[in-house]
Amino acid sequence: MEQRRINELGDELYGALRERRMVEPLTDRESAITIEDAYYISLRLVARRQADGETIIGKKIGVTSKAVQNMLNVHQPDFGYLTDRMVYGNGDEVPIGTELIQPRAEGEIAFILKRDLAGPGITNADVLRATEAVMPCFEIVDSRIRDWKIRIQDTVADNASCGLFLLGDRAVDPRRVDLATCGMVVEKNGELLSTGAGAAALGSPVNCVSWLANTLGGFGIALKAGEVILSGSLVPLEPVRPGDHMRVAIGGIGSASVRFT
């Protein structure tokens, strides 16, 4: 795809983000679009956000669990960038009614890095050595693509359907918890919504982070010390609206609570 068209599509998605409007799927309009094209479109979108004063504070991997892959009909992971405008703290009110378009919430495990991870060749052992702590997390994904009718190229171009995220109440050493077997319980408005386990995300959230480091390494991009890395949902996506309250608890790690406004 020509750079001019990459810039046009990145600018279109940036405008949709700022104006809270949907656009038609890119894959319906650009039949030859590749995942690499989509990645460069996302870089244009992120560059526009940085020009607005946003700072990159981390990265995310998405569409890791079978439940989410089947829900979205996207059958491989994607990746995107997190900025300082996206993050909230445990118990905060998150203004989806004024910030997002068609939000869905998911429970995840966030990794806080103390060392760089530059692929290719990153192993799970490398990930654990580079991780300062893991935390419970809600990611509230959003899509500028109309009605979530996305293929992998659409979501990659749209910065992996990034919306907002909220970090929980504890940060623990990843060596003190079995990240593959730890259980997750998600409640919505006081009722049990879903359960999951670490293995739901590519067999382990650690596998997700090593995949992300190696995938981005192919583009010459590293995961950086101090960054937050969202490792992917362990449960199905849940549509949310203002007034909803959700809580996630992860065995051996902690919990996170959010109220949507």
Relevant terms:
261 residues, eight-stranded mixed sheet, alpha+beta, Fumarylacetoacetate hydrolase, domain 2, globular, five-stranded mixed sheet, 29% helix
Structure write-up:
The protein is an alpha+beta fold and 261 residues long. It has a single domain, classed as Alpha-Beta Complex (Fumarylacetoacetate hydrolase, domain 2), CATH 3.90.850. Helix content is 29%, strand content 30%. The protein has 8 helices and 13 strands. The protein has helices at 3-19, 26-29, 35-51, 66-72, 96-99, 124-130, 152-157, 205-217; strands spanning 56-62, 78-83, 87-89, 93-94, 104-113, 131-141, 164-167, 183-188, 191-197, 228-233, 238-239, 245-250, 254-260. Strands 1, 2, 3, 5, 6, 7, 10 and 11 form an 8-stranded mixed beta sheet that branches. Strands 4-13-12-8-9 form a 5-stranded mixed beta sheet, with no helix packed on it. The chain is globular and about 50 Å long.
Compose a concise summary of this entry.
The chain is an alpha+beta fold and 261 residues long.
Overall, the morphology is: globular
Low-confidence stretches: none
On the 0-100 scale, what is the average pLDDT? Answer: 92
Overall tally of domains: 1
Number of strands: 13
Give the radius of gyration.
Answer: 17 Å
The first-to-last residue Cα distance is: 40 Å
Any idea of the CATH topology?
Answer: Fumarylacetoacetate hydrolase, domain 2
The CATH class label is Alpha Beta
Structural class: alpha+beta
Query: What proportion of the residues is helical, as a percent range?
Result: 25-40%
- Please name the fourth-level CATH homologous superfamily: Fumarylacetoacetase-like, C-terminal domain
